[in-house]
TrEMBL record:
This is Acetylornithine aminotransferase. Its EC number is 2.6.1.11. GO terms for molecular function: transaminase activity. N(2)-acetyl-L-ornithine binds at residues 139, 278. The keyword ATP-binding does not apply. May also have succinyldiaminopimelate aminotransferase activity, thus carrying out the corresponding step in lysine biosynthesis. It comes from Chitiniphilus purpureus. The modification N6-(pyridoxal phosphate)lysine is found at residue 250. It comes from the Bacteria.
Length: 403
């Protein structure tokens, strides 16, 4: 059966606009399309493929578990889920774990837990949820309403009540909104979809203080920043600020769909039997692969390697910019890096992505003005250098096309 990009337009709902080429095989940080053309992957499946494509430890875990047990539902528990929960508790502040299938589901669970706990302890008035403008927390109706981007939430009718937004990295803006009726404040330690903007330490510390003052729960959305992406297992560790609830997905499964909500025993007790659930959450296949990913990533060698590779990328991007000045600012942490375009090229990140594909390179956008890199945490230096060389050719072609 011969399938091509045009079949997408014939059969699929048109809510995506995928690239013209169709990847069919990947290994490490290289990908090949239907024509056998090779690409360097600096996109990482949007920060999902934390160990690249077909990492042997993840393949081993999947094949081994695939021959044992695939699915039993949460009418029963299973060993891979129990093992992964134990690993996450041992590695983080958390005492309890809830498994689901995606970052949106993890954030949905976190927000429901925070509201339920606040209401059970203080009454119906304590239900407000605060988040940052330009944040992104998922595509369920609740999470897309909490995310501060009208372009994603408009057009679906009335939104859930009690949601308000503050300016990211602006403690005064948060302080003006938070009060004793606030159930939760949800923050991305690094704004991912809106430009790869790290929070300041002062902002997160101040948010922790305000939540404590008003009896609100602090939720860190680490769907994109977690699982070694910053050079620590989770970004909250870089800041020294511990949330009440943390959400994880993307890199957690190294490419296999899984999400998790991590919290304390005191908070977890508010989700009693029947209050929340998911058919596939804690799936043995997903948990086995995620367990192998966690063991592989959470080592000094890999985490220190992320920090070193960050410096290599930043130096390479700065060198490109010296020859072709298109970037106004480089920012990010670890292997989540954003390169913001200068005003002269504002809004044209997609054009650079198209040029990159022509050069055999996969990169991302983080809004119309930012090129985003989220490669494998173990990408070899040779692939970094080759990827940057291809990016430079793409940037040069882009600049030339501007006339």
């Amino acid at each position: 059966m011969s399938l091509s990009r045009s079949d997408f337009d014939q059969y699929m709902v048109p809510n995506y606009a995928p690239a013209a080429f169709v990847p069919v095989r990947g290994l490490g940080s290289r990908v090949w399309d239907q024509e056998g053309r090779e690409y360097v992957d600096l996109a990482g499946g949007i920060a999902v493929n934390a160990l690249g494509h077909c990492h042997p430890e993840l393949v081993r875990a999947l094949v081994e578990q695939g021959g044992k047990l695939w699915h039993v539902s949460n009418v029963f528990t299973n060993e891979p889920a129990l093992a992964l929960a134990e690993q996450l508790v041992a590695a983080t502040f958390a005492e309890r774990v809830f498994f689901c299938n995606s970052g949106a589901e993890a954030n949905e669970a976190a927000l429901k837990l925070a509201r339920r706990a606040a209401i059970e302890l203080h009454g119906e008035r304590k239900h407000k949820v605060l988040s940052a403008y330009n944040s992104f927390h998922g595509r369920t109706f609740f999470t897309v309403s909490v995310g501060g981007q009208a372009k994603y939430s408009d057009g679906f009718g009335p939104r859930p009540a009690g949601i308000a937004h503050f300016d990211f990295n602006d403690l005064d803006s948060l302080a003006a909104l938070i009060d004793d009726d606030t159930a939760a404040v949800i923050i991305e330690p690094i704004l991912g979809e809106s430009g790869v903007v790290p929070a300041t330490r002062e902002f997160l510390q101040g948010a922790r203080h305000l939540c404590d003052k008003h009896g609100a729960y602090l939720i860190f959305d680490e769907v994109q920043s977690g699982m070694g992406r910053t050079g620590s297992l989770y970004a909250y560790m870089d800041y020294g600020v511990v949330p009440d609830i943390l959400t994880s997905a993307k890199s957690l499964g190294g490419g296999f769909p899984i999400g998790a909500m991590l919290t304390s025993s005191a908070l977890a007790k508010h989700l009693v039997v029947g209050t929340h659930g998911t058919t596939y959450g804690g799936n043995p296949l997903a948990c086995a692969v995620a367990g192998a990913a966690l063991v592989t990533i959470n080592t000094p060698e890999v985490l220190e390697g992320v920090r070193q590779k960050h410096q290599r990328f930043v130096a390479g991007l700065a060198a490109i910019n010296a020859r072709h000045p298109v970037f106004a600012q480089l920012r990010g942490r670890g292997l989540l890096i954003g390169a913001e375009l200068t005003p002269a090229y504002a809004g044209q990140a997609r054009e650079i992505l198209a040029q990159a594909a022509q050069q055999g390179l996969m990169v991302l956008m983080a809004g119309p003005n930012v090129i985003r890199l989220a490669p494998s945490l173990v990408i070899p230096d040779a692939d970094i250098d080759e990827g940057l060389a291809r990016l430079e050719r793409a940037v040069a072609a882009f600049v030339a096309a501007q006339g």
